[in-house]
Amino acid sequence: MQAEYESLMDNNTWTLVDEPEDQQVLPGKWVYKVKYRASGQVDKLKARYVAKGYAQIEGLDFFDTYAPTCKPETFRILLATAARKDLYLAAKNWYEALTSLLLKKGFKRSCNDYCLFVRKEENGTFPYVLVWVDDIVVAGATEEAINEIKSMSNENFKMDDRGDLNWFLGMQILRLHDKITVDQTKYIETVLQEFNMSDCKAVATPGEVNLKLVKSNEGKKLVDPKLYRSLVGSLLFSGKQTRPDILNIVNQLAVTISR
Question: Which CA distances in Å does 49 have to 43, 81, 82, 87?
């Protein structure tokens, strides 16, 4: 908690002002999380202090809710490019102003994904920076190229350097001789445990061919609809990242959420 507090102070996260008469003051809270290494071992215990954004009123406390996150396809293409060109990969934490910094340092933002930044160097190589909320992935032809981006970032922000990329958004990244593999074994095991499915039997296919789900007035209603929505959301995330084979049936399940 002390490290989080010092990080917030070092990065000038807030400015003390007088309380406006026409605005409410949002309360804050501590959020705790266990971070794991690619091996599944505990990496560190993370504490974050956040504002309770759900207490805001749209049109009064905020107007714009858009915050870009990189597309799963963009992340996979970046890994494929790194494997093909033998690029080095690294991961770091960042704060909101990083995007502005990258643009000032000559990076250009992709028209297809606003979270991907690229810059052409004098030697013809291209370092890449991929942003996801407060994490970034850096790919470069040399370690020097990556270190230059790290130094540039550290001059402006207090950041946590995670070294080589081996864990990102619940995905294990494994670099082999001529390829990079991505899997979500740890994430899927956690989901199975959360929904008491750790002992379930695997099947060859995720769903029946040409299966169509229709609304029925028979049967019992869900005791906890939020639990069902959480399960479908977890499956959608896995499907979009590493398991496209389950997307068809999961998308059908997602349609039933609003019924």
Answer: 20, 36, 35, 35
DSSP 180-242: EEEE-HHHHHHHHHHTT-TTPPP-SSSS-TT------S-SPPPS-HHHHHHHHHHHHHHHHHT
The pLDDT profile of the chain, 259 residues, written as one tens digit per residue, is: 888 777 777 777 777 888 777 677 777 888 888 776 656 677 778 888 877 665 555 555 544 444 567 778 787 877 777 776 665 555 555 556 777 888 888 999 888 888 899 999 888 889 998 887 777 888 888 888 888 888 887 777 767 777 788 888 778 888 887 788 889 888 899 899 999 999 888 888 888 777 777 776 766 777 778 888 899 999 999 998 889 999 888 988 888 776 5
- Alpha-carbon torsion, ordered 177, 183, 185, 191, to 10 deg: 170
Q: Where are the domains of the chain?
A: 1-55, 98-163, 203-256
What is the pTM assigned to this prediction?
0.59
| Cβ contact 180:82 at 8 Å | yes
- Retrieve residue 147's tokens: 């270190």
